[in-house]
Amino acid sequence: MASLPKLMPEDSYQDLEVQILADGLFHGVAIYVIALLGLTMLWRRGGHRPADRPLLGWAVLGFSIWQFVDVVLAHWVVGIHRVRVGVPNPLLWDVGWLAAFGVTTLVIGIWLLVQRPTSRNNGTRGAAVISELIILGGLTSLAPSASSSTVVLFRPSMERAQTFAVAAALDAGIRWSDASGRILVLDLPAGTQPSKLYIHGALLVGNTGAVSCLNWIRA
What we know:
Order of helices and strands: HHHHHEHEEE
Shape: elongated
Largest sheet: 4 strands, antiparallel
Distance between the termini: 28 Å
Number of helices: 6
Number of strands: 4
Number of domains: 2
Strand order of the largest sheet: 2-3-1-4
Helix content: 40-55%
């Protein structure tokens, strides 16, 4: 089987800093911009929205399609990053991610769409559920976590001594650092807001939850 074409230079997309920054911008900008635009369009339609069941079905189906676009476009075609880096078979992790989050939601979305609505309504409850899930997801990403680490990418002008001093000032444990000291994986004290790192020179702060791509970066 022929390898998929790459749209970026080899030495660019395999750089860990590029992978982390690209992943953060992709999820932090693209996903939330699309979500806000979608919510605006959803509520502006008022009584012209689909009923609750098909509305939820399209939302779940959209989530599934996003997973396939992310893996196929960002992971395979562009080659910016993989679901897990530094393992013998990254394709297995990509396929596993699609099976867990893409295929399952695809089946659920189609099932919701083919079911006949029990009653006709303007989709207000469905819109409310979708809105609550999006808002909850955003708030969850901002909340401090005592069970996961935080990946931090600092400004290019910062040196190793400066980034380590930031970690010490926040009483954070350093789990891993790249050679330059600009990429750190920190264990923040319980209750510490990861967003505090932005005022100390961070370009990107990513929580490494169980379903985060950043959680599986290995050097």
